[in-house]
Amino acid sequence: MKKHNFSAGPCILPQEVLVKASEALINFDGLDLSLIEISHRSPNFVAVIEKARHLVLELLNLEGKGYQVLFLQGGASSQFLLSAYNLMKDQNGKAAYLNTGTWSSKAIKEAKLFGELAEVASSKDKNFNYIPKDYIIPSDVDYFHTTSNNTIYGTQMHSFPEFNGINVCDMSSDIFSRSLDFSKFDLIYAGAQKNMGPAGTTLVVVKESILGNTGRTIPSMLDYQVHIAKDSMFNTPPVFAVYTSMLTLEWLKDLGGIKAIEKINNQKAQLLYQEIDRNPLFTGVSATEDRSKMNATFTLNNESHSDLFDTIWEEAGINGLNGHRSVGGYRASMYNALTIESVEVLVNCMQELERKA
Amino acid sequence: MKKHNFSAGPCILPQEVLVKASEALINFDGLDLSLIEISHRSPNFVAVIEKARHLVLELLNLEGKGYQVLFLQGGASSQFLLSAYNLMKDQNGKAAYLNTGTWSSKAIKEAKLFGELAEVASSKDKNFNYIPKDYIIPSDVDYFHTTSNNTIYGTQMHSFPEFNGINVCDMSSDIFSRSLDFSKFDLIYAGAQKNMGPAGTTLVVVKESILGNTGRTIPSMLDYQVHIAKDSMFNTPPVFAVYTSMLTLEWLKDLGGIKAIEKINNQKAQLLYQEIDRNPLFTGVSATEDRSKMNATFTLNNESHSDLFDTIWEEAGINGLNGHRSVGGYRASMYNALTIESVEVLVNCMQELERKA
Ligand SMILES: Cc1ncc(COP(=O)(O)O)c(C=O)c1O
Ligand SMILES: Cc1ncc(COP(=O)(O)O)c(C=O)c1O
Ligand SMILES: [Mg+2]
Ligand SMILES: [Mg+2]
Ligand SMILES: [Mg+2]
Ligand SMILES: [Mg+2]
């Protein structure tokens, strides 16, 4: 049965990417060898990682602007640590963080090991259902850290404050989904497993000039400069995850890039939020102006409808709609590879509930 | 054309594993969803990682002995760092390392950031072509670190010194290949990409009682105890690499486990080393008593034969035979999934050279 995959991550990937990845596991590049049994230093794989790197810069419009692209391991969770390790000064290190959810909070926790932290604002008072707006970023911090999209709570930063220093952003759950002036950020990181590819690699896009200024000794595997010097091959890279990410980036480019996908993502989000608002049985969780176009969180106004609703959407082939335990209700993740048809199926389920309840 | 894959890693995996992994990318567990687009917290994937964990303990004969199994990211190179971070005391930390090659040297380099290091012996004087034997391990060190198999130089520890303290071993390139009393080790780590699976996950097998005694604050992602508490799901695991490792472990178990594969590995190694010794055109690189059964390094006695030899083995469908740049010559990696037929093909090529040269 055709599935409509609303999983929050790992999540839906383009079908043609899955088919190509599946084929490469048997015979990659016509070598009569599997993708995963050749040397990562073979010309065939080096071409893959170079292409992936190039596609990232091209899609983000960051070519020739002093940025380096890395494909690392360890997830975005490791970047909570690496960003602080590589950017916070050894002496009197200080950084500012905007706390918009679980992931920001975890990033803050790891960075505290390296210096003083200024939490410039937090939306914890309302279970992170909005993005704080009026706050002051101390001018003397080593960097300012934000989370562009809050996967769990369904909020998204639709604008970013102007900060003159180093801007760091965890874009794990909305990278490649919308147009932004990415050159306003000095360090962007993202676990692959939303819009870039399968779990197992982490994208780091970093302006090279911000590195090497902390006075800190950094272990090799945690040092961005070490990985840059070796083109992400300081050690064995996660070959499969990088290859499948490259395929996904290629798919996005062929589709017309970020501008094209943004249009579709806007349509999907509008369709679903419109129904959440219109349908008297449902209410959105997050503040209207901060709604995420990637993860829509909503609840049933009457809990007693949940069994019927769950039966309806499960029978329609929908998958991954349950909300995160810290929010409850439902979460519809509408990443790049999800089609508008899948959103229409969900909207139909919501309307079916309205008729039947 | 049928390939004979002697790559040093990533390397050959069992054909049936590749086929199953390829199928799971299209439809996993009959879910009508790809393995890489479902939640890592779904019952289907949780069952995979639990099974993989269990298979590791079973194959290593470590069940019920206080060991924990982790599937992490970052490669064995990250474990150079994590082993020291988790085991070296914060105050007056001291560790002993046996230096048997590039990987040991890199492990030593990372550990030096955490305390005093005693290099108990080194074979660097002879480009690591042997395993040092007579050395003293200081009794007051926090742990003693060895590298069981030296992938680059083709040496292997056929016995390990008795050390009463904590024993740490990098088994990246020979784990699951031979019977050992694994319970003599307190911490074993291995990048997956030799005998366990594809690049992208790292196996850690640790005796839980050795943890938590350093007095050091460890960042979450570097803390074995954090990962143990979350069953390797503190953050998103590398789903594909864990799944394919599970398939490979299952294949090994079905084949009869380590005892069965060891017999085959012994036959393969004997066949090749016999030819290296017999054939007047070739010489083995490493000391006879320290020869690795996983990676056989050898050279041509007459460099002028190399073009002809390269043509012969390439035409026979052999892949990945070139030696590492720091050794030169040839390296035949004979990991678990390589069949004896492939070794016979190589031996035939060596004899063909003898006839034609
Ligand atoms: C915004 C955000 N940051 C960080 C993470 C953690 O990523 P990982 O599991 O790759 O460490 C997630 C995971 O969903 C996320 O959504
Ligand atoms: C014995 C040994 N240790 C460590 C490593 C490094 O592993 P990784 O590339 O997974 O970091 C290797 C890689 O080949 C190895 O053979
Ligand atoms: Mg969040
Ligand atoms: Mg409503
Ligand atoms: Mg070595
Ligand atoms: Mg000889």
UniProtKB/TrEMBL annotation, chains A, B:
Pfam assignment, any one: Aminotran_5
Record-annotated Aminotransferase class V domain positions: 5-346
Binding site for pyridoxal 5'-phosphate: A76, S77, W103, T151, D170, Q193, N235, T236
Cofactor(s) the record lists: pyridoxal 5'-phosphate
InterPro entries in UniProt: Aminotrans_V_dom (IPR000192), Aminotrans_V_PyrdxlP_BS (IPR020578), Pser_aminoTfrase (IPR022278), PyrdxlP-dep_Trfase (IPR015424), PyrdxlP-dep_Trfase_major (IPR015421), PyrdxlP-dep_Trfase_small (IPR015422)
Catalytic EC class: transferase
Sites bearing N6-(pyridoxal phosphate)lysine, chain numbering: K194
Similarity section: Belongs to the class-V pyridoxal-phosphate-dependent aminotransferase family. SerC subfamily.
Protein name as annotated: Phosphoserine aminotransferase
Species annotation: Pseudofulvibacter geojedonensis
Encoding gene, per UniProt annotation: serC
